[in-house]
């Protein structure tokens, strides 16, 4: 259970095993983690140690083999709930409402404009009917985010016509459109050159300061890890420097 008031998300004794072709791979070995409200937490570790696996479990994109994920978000009905025990539909709602995601390869939909990509999580959150009636307001919000990340003038472009850095800015705007409590970022600058990556670092720091959302960033980029309030290192399926 969370021990301090500013802990928003608390993973306990997480294990994850993958089984394929009769082989069992033990990736997480009873890992504990507290995520604090509003912090930037970076997670580093060698390739294959299980960083993406952990992020996928925390973000409810995959289920742990065992362990708990106790969440204390803004939704009172979730207070102290073990998300790991929820059904798939409830997990999808929590994911959409409480969490944002930024991936190395952006995962933008190529057939939608940048603005439509940013609006997509809002459409899922509100449902088609309510989304339609609130479209102007939500578009204004999405445009505000695109302005904040510096690519408002690209809002009608398909993502395929943006540079890597611009795509990541669009993905960050999309991650923020539902006012998430936690933004999970997996190698957000892994596909960008150093200068572009540094601009993304500045942007994340600025957004974190302005929004109060927690950012959990998995990275090999030591400069990016350096902007974090806290840095944890994974080895052998656990954190080696406590949590
Ligand atoms: N779906 C899967 N089935 C079987 N094994 C998997 C699966 N996904 C990941 N693994 C294994 O789990 C281990 C951890 O993978 P993971 O992607 O979490 O590592 P990572 O720390 O993110 O590495 P990188 O820094 O290279 O991204 C690896 O040994 C990988 O081969
Ligand atoms: Mg990874």
Q: Would you kindly provide a brief summary of this structure?
A:
The chain has 243 residues and is of the alpha/beta class. 37% of the residues lie in helices and 26% in strands. It has a single domain, classed as 3-Layer(aba) Sandwich (Rossmann fold), CATH 3.40.50.
Describe, in plain words, how this protein is organized in 3D:
The chain is α/β, with parallel strands linked by helices and 243 residues long. Helices cover 37% and strands 26% of the residues. The longest helix has 20 residues, at 114-133. It starts with 6 loop residues before the first strand and ends with a strand. The mean pLDDT is 93. Bound molecules: adenosine-5'-triphosphate (ATP) and magnesium ion. Adenosine-5'-triphosphate (ATP) binds at residues 18, 20, 25, 27, 45, 47-53.
């Amino acid at each position: 259970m969370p021990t301090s008031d500013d802990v928003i998300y608390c993973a306990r004794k997480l294990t994850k095993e993958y089984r394929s072709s009769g082989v069992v791979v033990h990736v997480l070995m009873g890992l504990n983690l507290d995520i604090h409200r509003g912090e930037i937490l970076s997670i580093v570790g060698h390739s294959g140690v299980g960083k993406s696996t952990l992020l996928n479990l925390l973000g409810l994109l995959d289920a742990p083999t065992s362990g708990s994920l106790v969440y204390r978000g803004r939704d009172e009905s979730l207070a102290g709930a073990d998300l790991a025990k929820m059904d798939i539909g409830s997990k999808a709602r929590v994911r959409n409402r409480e969490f944002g995601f930024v991936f190395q390869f952006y995962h933008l939909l190529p057939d939608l404009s940048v603005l439509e990509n940013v609006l997509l999580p809002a459409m899922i959150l509100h449902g088609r009917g309510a989304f339609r009636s609130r479209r102007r307001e939500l578009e204004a919000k999405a445009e505000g985010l695109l302005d904040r990340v510096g690519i408002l003038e690209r809002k009608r472009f398909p993502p395929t016509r943006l540079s890597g850095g611009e795509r990541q800015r669009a993905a960050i705007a999309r991650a923020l459109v539902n006012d998430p409590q936690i933004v999970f970022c997996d190698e957000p600058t892994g596909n960008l050159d150093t200068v572009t990556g540094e601009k993304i670092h500045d942007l994340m720091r600025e957004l974190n300061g302005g929004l109060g959302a927690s950012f959990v960033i998995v990275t090999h980029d030591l400069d990016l890890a350096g902007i974090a309030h806290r840095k944890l290192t994974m080895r052998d399926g656990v954190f080696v420097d406590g949590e």
